[in-house]
Structures are given as structure tokens and as C-alpha cells.
């Protein structure tokens, strides 16, 4: 049971989901525009940030992916209003964004890497929005996949927080039946020191490659070298 002080501290972390300043705007951080005949043998990557954050949180992972040979034309960041409903609004908007990426790149499938709340948005798209046919790899960094008690602190006034609470409609529906459906390859990365995801083991999913990253704070997974290496190895599998 969290004390009032612990709950307040976790809420502040949840609301300030990124301490890093947003990266300079680049074409792949915005909605893809136009069509391009440049299909690649590997899937383009769509990065989905977490609650109260923006695409700027992906600066470190983007740099690592570019060092591995990805071009900016293969890296896309989905920006969205994180206070909206997972199932009624956000998953559908992500699905439309993925279709734009597929048209622009000529790719049949995309890889999705999501942090925190973005895990619920992208899982709903994969499971209920047709994503099993369009997603190759799905990665969750510190996602509240079975809910987090921290979200109760803002659930009274925020729909996204309600969606993240244990036992919410979104969490229950995603937990019904097979949590990792289709031929999508699933992976999660979780910390046993995560101050936002409570309990810590809310992140792993049956049927996924579940990797503990040690003692890292919630947002530290975004810039951790070991986590980045694990994500990139999984995307290459």
C-alpha cells in the first residue's frame, strides 16, 4: 500500500513523464506526408511515448537506431494528446498513423516501441484495431499492462489515468484471452525499482520476451544503454 507521500511523488513523476527537452522537430517526428517508393527489408519503427510526454523523449533510442543503420526515413514518432481515451480515441489515431507510415515507406508491417501509457494505446491497436496484420515487433518499456495503482491519484479527472488503473475497462479487455495474439513478436522491459508502475510485475506479459532491466526509475528506461541494446536486438530478431 502506497503512503500519501509515496503516491504524491509517483503522481508527480507520472505527470512529468519526461525531463529531457523535446528534440528538434524533424520530418519523421511529424505525421508522414506524401508517398515514397523506398521499401526497406526491415520494418520502419513507430515510437509511441507515454503519459504527459512528447516525441522528444525518444532522442536517445533514435540516435542508437541511427547508429545501427536506420535512417530518419525509417523512424517515426507518434505524438498525441495523452489525456484521451485509449480505446475510443487514441488507438484509432495510432492505427491511422501506422497506415500513413506504411503508405509512405511501402512497408507491409511496422515495429512499435512504446513507453508507459503508450503500451496500452499500442496494445489496443494491435489486438482490436487490426494491428496483428500490420505490426511485426511490439515492445513495451515500463508499460502498465495490467494497470498501476499510481494512476488512481489522477483517475478522478483524467480519462487516461482511469484507463491505467488496475481493473479498468481497458486493462480488463486487454487481459481477456490471449494477451499476445497473432504472429506479432512481443517484448517487455521492466524495472523492479519503477516508482510509477505498481506493482512492478504489471509490465511482463505471458507469451512475450520479458526482460528485467535491474533497478531503474520509470523514465530512465528511455535512456538506458542496456535497455536500448535489448530493444534493438529484439527488433533485429
Description:
The structure is a single chain. By secondary structure, the protein is α/β, with parallel strands linked by helices. It contains seven helices and six strands. A six-stranded parallel sheet has the order 2-1-3-4-5-6, with helices on both faces. Strand 3, helix 4 and strand 4 form a beta-alpha-beta unit. Helix 3 crosses helix 4. The protein is globular, with a radius of gyration of 16 Å. The N terminus is likely disordered.
Q: What's the β-strand tally?
A: 6
Helix content: 25-40%
Gyration radius, in Å: 16 Å
Percent of residues in beta strands? 5-15%
Order of strands across the widest beta sheet?
2-1-3-4-5-6
CA(first)-CA(last) distance:
39 Å
The ordered string of helix (H) and strand (E) elements is HEHEHEHEHHEEH
- Structural class by sheet pairing and helices: alpha/beta
Poorly predicted ranges (pLDDT <50, ≥5 residues)?
A: 1-9, 15-28, 33-39
What is the number of helical segments per DSSP (H or I, 4+ residues)? 7
| Residue-averaged pLDDT | 88
Q: Main β-sheet, in a few words?
A: 6 strands, parallel
Amino acid at each position: 500500500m502506497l503512503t500519501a507521500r509515496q503516491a504524491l511523488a509517483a503522481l508527480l513523476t507520472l505527470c512529468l513523464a519526461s525531463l529531457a527537452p523535446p528534440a528538434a522537430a524533424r520530418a519523421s517526428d511529424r505525421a508522414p506526408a506524401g508517398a515514397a517508393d523506398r521499401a526497406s527489408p526491415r520494418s520502419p519503427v513507430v515510437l509511441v511515448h507515454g503519459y504527459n510526454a512528447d516525441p522528444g523523449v525518444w532522442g536517445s533510442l533514435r540516435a542508437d537506431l541511427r547508429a545501427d543503420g536506420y535512417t530518419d526515413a525509417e523512424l517515426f514518432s507518434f505524438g498525441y494528446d495523452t489525456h484521451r481515451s485509449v480505446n475510443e480515441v487514441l488507438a484509432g489515431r495510432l492505427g491511422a498513423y501506422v497506415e500513413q507510415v506504411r503508405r509512405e515507406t511501402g512497408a507491409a508491417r511496422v515495429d512499435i516501441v512504446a513507453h508507459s501509457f503508450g503500451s496500452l494505446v499500442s496494445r489496443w491497436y494491435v489486438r482490436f484495431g487490426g494491428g496483428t496484420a500490420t505490426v511485426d515487433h511490439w515492445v513495451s518499456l515500463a508499460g502498465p499492462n495490467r494497470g498501476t495503482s499510481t494512476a488512481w491519484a489522477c483517475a478522478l479527472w483524467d480519462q487516461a489515468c482511469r484507463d491505467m488503473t488496475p481493473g479498468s475497462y481497458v486493462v480488463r479487455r486487454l487481459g481477456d484471452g490471449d494477451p499476445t495474439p497473432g504472429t506479432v513478436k512481443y517484448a517487455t522491459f521492466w524495472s523492479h525499482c519503477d516508482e510509477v508502475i505498481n506493482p512492478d510485475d504489471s509490465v511482463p506479459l505471458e507469451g512475450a520476451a520479458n526482460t528485467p532491466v535491474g533497478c531503474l526509475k520509470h523514465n530512465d528506461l528511455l535512456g538506458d544503454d542496456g535497455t536500448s541494446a535489448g530493444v534493438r536486438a529484439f527488433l533485429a530478431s
